[in-house]
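[step 3/7] fold_predict: job queued, chain A
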Amino acid sequence: MTTTTTEHNRPYTHRDLPRLMGLMTGDEKHGPAATSTLDVLWVLYDRVLRVGPERMDDPERDRFLLSKGHGPMAYYAVLAAKGFVPVEWLPDFGSYDSPLGHHPDRVLVPGAEIGSGSLGHGLPIAVGTALGLRAQGRTAPRVWVLVGDAELDEGSNHEAIAFAGPAGLDRLHTVVVDNSSASHARPGGIAARFEAAGWSAVTVDGRDHAALYAAFTGPHPGRPHVVVAQVEPKSA
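[step 4/7] structure written:
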């Protein structure tokens, strides 16, 4: 677990995240998109991901890919809390010369594995990353990708889901943050779509840290794994 120290000489905790997010202002904050991911991101970076500022280039690190890149304030707040980026960068979020743009840029943001953009591209990249690591014989690194439920309206994701299951990409993990913003209904729920393609799947309360941790760390031998994290509807 990686921590960094605040001005009060104590580690940042989950309770500090609202204050860190509050340092970022502007008209393009996409607040609901950001806050919907906050607990998922914190549990991953605080308790699950094997990555830190000191090993961002370690080939054996876990890879975390943020596909739900609009409204990245929660992501930036967590990266700052864990020491990837300076807290001093946060107030300049979205400004002309700030590295913290309205979508993360892997060239500018330490710790960002991909530059996020159009919806629906993160899961296919994660599939390719898992395949690349397999081809290199690297069995330790895990690949994690966070997508929003609305991204599942995009066909590119369904192609990736359909491929990953039969390919047995058991180092691939997907977190779908479900804030009821998708346009198209899915009979049986989101998890059923993944299960039909051979994935291990579980649906949990996206605000319950214990439930998230259990879902993130559950065994799924031979299969990719998806966690559907349900949070309050976007309109709430």
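[step 5/7] annotate
The helical segments are 17-22, 31-35, 38-48, 73-81, 122-135, 155-167, 190-196, 209-217.
The first strand starts at residue 63 and ends at 66.
exit 0
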